[in-house]
Amino acid sequence: MSLVIASVSDNSLAAEAGIKNGEELIKINGLEVRDFLDLEYLSSDYHLRLRVKNALGRVRTVHIYRETARPLGIEPVAYRHRNCKNHCIFCFIDQMPKKLRGTLYNKDDDFLFSFVFGNYITLTNLSDADYKRIFSQHISPLYISLHTTDPELRQRMMRSRNPIHPLKQLRLLARHDIEYHLQIVCVPGYNDGDALKQSVSDILESDLPALSIGIVPVGLTMYREGLCHLEPFDKIKATKCLDLIDELRNKYHSDIVYPADELFVLAEREIPSPDYYQDYPQLENGIGMLRMTAENYQRYKRGLLKTLRSRPGMNYRLYCSRSAYSMMRDIARDLNRLLKGQRVSLQSVACDFFGEHVSVSGLITYEDLSTLTTPAADEIAILPNSLLNQDLLTLDGYTLEELKSLFPAGLLLVDPFFESHEWA
Predict the structure, then answer these.
(1) What H or E segment, with its residue span, contains residue 252?
(2) Phi, psi (deg, nearest 5) at residue 63
(3) Is the link from the previous residue into 384 a cis peptide, with omega within 30 of 0?
């Protein structure tokens, strides 16, 4: 096993040592290099003995001494993540229409991605060798999709080829000082109610090193043909779920159990204060996003106001998801209070592309926006930049230029947390 080198940075230690693009890195200090994490983990020593194979198959030893702050400079080929082999009844990817961006259909279930990017893993595809590596390299914390502590219920929901006993695996990780964030995708009629209460109690009554427990309502799109019937969350179900979570937090004096923002929105309850979310451990899971957005608006609004005022005589139309409407309404009111001679109107965008039960800004598509009333001639559009990926494509594959064509007066793209903004 070896790691193919995609490129070597100029003026780096590796370049100085004669390592070339396309060569293979076999070992560092006698240990195999399997992937990007091994490279980072093993190359932190002062003296590195690298076994390198060239294009002709000749192997040589290269010595590098990390005496300076110069980078090693080895960029490996792109890592191919491990795919999910489960067939979860609630899998969001199974509910997506065809012909969207290809990367949207990737089902990763990879412990390296869990550690590095915070992606959730199921633990159903880990081998003894994987566990040995996790323990020896202390790959912690991990992000784990728990869903329930009941092994039979978990298998009914996940339909795994390799079912596990979740509590046993969590205890195994704990014995080796591996911490984790847990996720429970809550599905009405399956792991809600008493089942949810039991799962959270099992964790909180133990000495397991759980850093957070996120409770997320199941996401359902209109594309469920051929899939089993699932009930969506509504106001009543969300209210019961929030009440249960409050009960558990109070009973166990625990502040690590967090409901998703969507539950508060559905229940028409106020989003908790910043203290509730502590250091926002599951922000990417839709937990605390609305609170952080509101807090960051206050922190960064001076720069935003300066930008809005730079187009005198122009007004603005602020677009947001249905989930964020209440919070964004307060922000629009504050902007209108502070702007003189300019106006900010607010428009909620329904995610009709995915269906009535989807209501977050990250799933708004070009098609959703194209069906809305065209802004007035003096209205510049303000959109969250989360609508676009790094290649500046919408979920349904439209380019930034095509998106801009919907807004003739101009387009301002704003980070969902107001940390940055730029003219498109």
Answers:
(1) none
(2) -105, 130
(3) no
Give yes or no for a cis peptide into 188 (omega within 30° of 0).
Answer: no
* Structure-derived torsion over alpha carbons of residues 289, 294, 295, 296, reported in degrees to the nearest 10: 80
Residue 378 to residue 381: CA distance in whole angstroms:
10
**Alpha carbons 375 and 398: distance in angstroms, whole number:** 20
The tens digit of pLDDT for each residue in 355-385 reads 989 988 889 999 999 999 889 999 999 999 9
335, with CB counted inside 10 A (0-12, 13-18, 19+), is: buried
Task: Grade residue 323 by pLDDT with cuts at 50, 70 and 90.
Answer: very high
CB 64 within 8 A of CB 29: no
Residue 67 has pLDDT above 90, yes or no: no
In what helix (H) or strand (E) does residue 287 lie, and over which residues does it extend? none
**Token reading at 376:** 């007035």
Lowest-confidence region among 63-72, 78-87, 284-293, 338-347? 63-72
Task: Tell if the pTM clears 0.70, that is, is over it.
Answer: yes
In angstroms, the CA 333 to CA 297 distance is 13
Give pLDDT tens digits for 139-172. Answer: 999 999 999 999 999 999 999 999 999 999 999 9
The CA distance from 114 to 173, in Å, is: 14
Sheet of 411-414: strand order equals: 344-349, 315-321, 379-384, 411-414, 421-423
